[in-house]
């Protein structure tokens, strides 16, 4: 029997103008955006619509904007009664997945990720941390490079295990420079610096994680109605106290996206639907396993297209 997983993108997928036409024509989506504005105490909707882009790119604003956009698009599936068998997200996207699973109320999610983004920005001063996507080198080699650079005094960690041949490293700016050079020496095809404001999913985020624990502790998190595949473990998570612990750990741990997708395929998923702006995760799924279907829903038109495919039209 066919199984569906909903995937939710992380930071970097945001863009000025996302959802503008959709929010103007869909009442339920508009209600989600209004709820976000009320929960945050400022107009994330205006920032999404008008920018400026430099502000929207800031971690503290990009994160609630993306959770808002994904949750608004999710209403299209709810209207049609389409329920996923599993949900997962990439980094920040895990919060959208928890909203979709009904483990985390939407208003609470946007407040949490605004705080999460603020703490992440504060953990390492801008310019002192960096991230790089390394193409064409295996995980074990990159892990040994990280250990070598870190032992020499510059913290570098494996941050995202995205798909075969694509691993992201995160750490101090100097450490990333050194790790990139070593990766190229050892045969990496490319080392692409990422346009991010900090060294996410590295040990440098531990102070942010410790500060964030109190927010997670006071948040209303319940048992998911749909199984959630957690970034940290690449497996199902159910108990609220475990969800809290893993969300704190997620800040400084690798996003095990490739393993998460493979785990869902083991569990019978053959159709992945990315819900949010962009189609990065759709591309990664196709690189992980070409036998499964992967589609991106970014607006009403792309939803209509995917709905036709799901109905076999």
From TrEMBL:
The keyword Transferase applies. It catalyses: holo-[ACP] + malonyl-CoA = malonyl-[ACP] + CoA. It comes from the Bacteria. Residues 7-312 form the Malonyl-CoA:ACP transacylase (MAT) domain. Pfam families: Acyl_transf_1. InterPro entries: Ac_transferase_dom_sf, Acyl_transferase_dom, Acyl_Trfase/lysoPLipase, Mal-CoA-ACP_Trans/PKS_FabD, Malonyl_CoA-ACP_transAc, Malonyl_CoA-ACP_transAc_FabD, Malonyl_transacylase_ACP-bd. It is an enzyme of class 2 (transferase). The active site is at residues 91, 201. Its EC number is 2.3.1.39. GO terms for cellular component: cytosol. SUPFAM superfamilies: FabD/lysophospholipase-like (SSF52151), Probable ACP-binding domain of malonyl-CoA ACP transacylase (SSF55048). GO terms for biological process: fatty acid biosynthetic process. SMART domains: PKS_AT (SM00827). One of its GO terms (molecular function) is [acyl-carrier-protein] S-malonyltransferase activity. Gene3D superfamilies: Malonyl-CoA ACP transacylase, ACP-binding (3.30.70.250), Malonyl-Coenzyme A Acyl Carrier Protein, domain 2 (3.40.366.10). Coiled coil: none annotated. Keywords: Acyltransferase, Transferase. Belongs to the fabD family. NCBIfam families: fabD (TIGR00128). This is Malonyl CoA-acyl carrier protein transacylase.
């Amino acid at each position: 029997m066919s199984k569906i997983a909903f995937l939710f993108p992380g930071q970097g997928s945001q863009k000025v103008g996302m959802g503008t036409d959709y929010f103007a024509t869909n009442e339920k989506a508009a209600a989600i955006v209004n709820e976000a504005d009320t929960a945050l105490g400022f107009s994330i909707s205006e920032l999404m619509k008008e920018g400026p882009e430099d502000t929207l790119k800031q971690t503290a604003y990009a994160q609630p904007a993306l959770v808002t956009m994904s949750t608004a698009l999710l209403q299209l599936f709810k209207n049609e009664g389409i329920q996923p068998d599993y949900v997962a997200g990439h980094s920040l996207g895990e919060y959208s997945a928890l909203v979709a699973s009904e483990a985390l109320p939407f208003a609470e999610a946007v407040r949490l990720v605004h705080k999460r983004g603020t703490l992440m920005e504060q953990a390492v001063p801008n310019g002192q941390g960096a991230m790089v996507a390394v193409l064409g080198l295996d995980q074990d080699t990159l892990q040994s490079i990280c250990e070598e650079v870190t032992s020499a005094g510059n913290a570098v960690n494996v941050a995202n295990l995205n798909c075969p041949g694509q691993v992201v490293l995160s750490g101090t700016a100097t450490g990333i420079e050194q790790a990139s050079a070593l990766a190229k020496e050892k045969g990496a095809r490319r080392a692409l610096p990422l346009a991010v404001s900090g060294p996410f999913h590295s040990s440098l985020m531990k102070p942010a994680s410790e500060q964030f624990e109190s927010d997670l502790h006071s948040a209303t998190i319940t048992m998911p109605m749909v199984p959630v595949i957690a970034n940290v473990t690449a497996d199902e998570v159910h108990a609220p106290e475990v969800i809290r612990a893993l969300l704190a750990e997620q800040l400084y741990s690798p996003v095990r996206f490739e393993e998460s997708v493979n785990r869902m395929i083991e569990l019978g998923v053959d159709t992945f639907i990315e819900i949010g702006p962009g189609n990065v995760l759709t591309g990664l799924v196709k690189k992980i396993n070409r036998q499964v279907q992967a589609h991106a829903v970014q607006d009403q038109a792309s939803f209509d297209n995917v709905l036709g495919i799901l109905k076999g039209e």
